[in-house]
Amino acid sequence: MAEAVRTRTREPDPDASNVYEKGLKYLLDLRERSFSRQVVLRDEEVPWEQDRQGRQKFFVMRETDHTNSALRDWNAFLHDIRNHSGAHRHQGGLAIYVIEGKGWTSVDGERIDWEAGDLLLLPIKPGGVLHQHHNDRPGETAVWIAFIYSPYMDELGKWVEQKAVAQDFKPGA
Prior knowledge:
This protein is mainly beta. The protein contains two helices and eleven strands. The chain has a domain at about 45-160: Jelly Rolls (Sandwich).
């Protein structure tokens, strides 16, 4: 009796130019990111930077993807207001949690006082919200952390317009 010969055929690789396949690859890449990148970002491993807004530490920044974070669509950063931050305008819609210190934020000219343990919610307004943060005890630590969900901000037409720079900012330094 003759032996039966079986031939196994493999399904062809998906067409990488197909929109559906690109979508599946995107989702698989996001899933892989969540398994392979950092879930805990250590404070001591993230440097402080001095920029136009002030002294900041960026843990997650979607626009630059400079950390090895498992998250992709968030921005989370610390801001240490030594005297006052820079002033800028954007559409609002973010949360700021005060970790240490006491100060106030000018929101479209209105003074909003805050201290450690407070949560500031910048309103969403047509034309944006002009705001600047101030330390009640200049020279002492006043630190908050901001959380921004970027896809939400994208849908609001994300933009930032710098109006004034932080006191400690030195261009080109």
